[in-house]
Amino acid sequence: MSDPRVVFLGGDDSAPQGLTFADSAHDDSSSWVMWRVLTANNRDVGRCQILHHEHADSVADFMNFKAHVERMEPVISHAQVGVEWTWSLLLDEIPVARSSRGYERLRECHYSLTQFLNAVPVAVVVDDPAHMVRQRRDHPIPGTFEPLADAL
Question: What pLDDT digit, counting tens, does each position of 39-58 carry?
Answer without folding.
Answer: 888 889 999 999 988 889 99
